[in-house]
Structure formats: structure tokens, C-alpha cells
């Protein structure tokens, strides 16, 4: 089974000082055994700022065995519609949410779970998307997430 990673999880994987580092490593290893682990170009772009250059980004992703998702027209349209829905309800200053809609739409289009630290950005706009979140960030307002602890395997 393919699993998508949000940039928050990828950063937790790479940086040992992150609070969810061990959880992210454990869940990443479980998911790698089940199939490819994928990031979108948006996630690639978001995490690239934590590296010196393209070669360093590609090396880190290669060591992890993370694959890149090329995207699809359907996912892009889904992201745009989710963003439009968000802007129709929220008139606030948060304008940087579109990348999360790209990430959520791509995972949703592929019917693949998404590992993330910030479930709130995805639940409302992608209700059928399976989210895998650290137990410390899981809330009880949706059935569409799977808070896996370090010793647990994926729940089917």
C-alpha cells in the first residue's frame, strides 16, 4: 500500500530533535514494508529549505527511499476546490493553506493514507482521506485517522 508523507512528518523523520521523531521513524518503517512511501512536489519544495542544495535534498530522500509523486490534473482540481471551499468559509489571513490542499488532494486521489502532524488541515476538506497521526496530535472528532503508537502496526 502506498503512503503519502506530509512535510511535517518528513521533518520529524530527518531531525532527531523533533518531538515526534521516534514515532515517525517507527511508522515510516512499518509503511515502507507495506509499499512505497511518497512525497509530492509540494512537500519536496517545503522540506528543501532545510537543506543546503538540491543534491543534499535528493541524497536525504534517497537514503530514506522516499519516492516522488508526479501529480495529476484530478488532484490539482481537487486541491483548488478544497481551497475554494475553505476561502468561502474562512475570511481570515491564512493564505498559505493551498500547499496542504495539494498534498491532501494527491493522497485522496490515489486513495492512499497520509502521515501528518497536522490533521486539522486535512480532515474537514478531505473527509475520506485516511490520516496517520502521532497519538499526541490525534483528536476524537473524526473516524478518518489512525493514531498508531510506536509498538503498533497498521490497522486495517
Automatic annotation (TrEMBL):
Domain PIN spans what residues? 4-120
Q: Does the keyword RNA-binding apply?
A: no
Record carries keyword Hydrolase: yes
Which top-rank group of organisms is this from?
Bacteria
- The protein here is known as DNA-binding protein
Q: Which Pfam families match?
A: PIN (PF01850)
Could you say which protein family the record assigns here? Belongs to the PINc/VapC protein family.
Organism listed in the record: Agaricicola taiwanensis
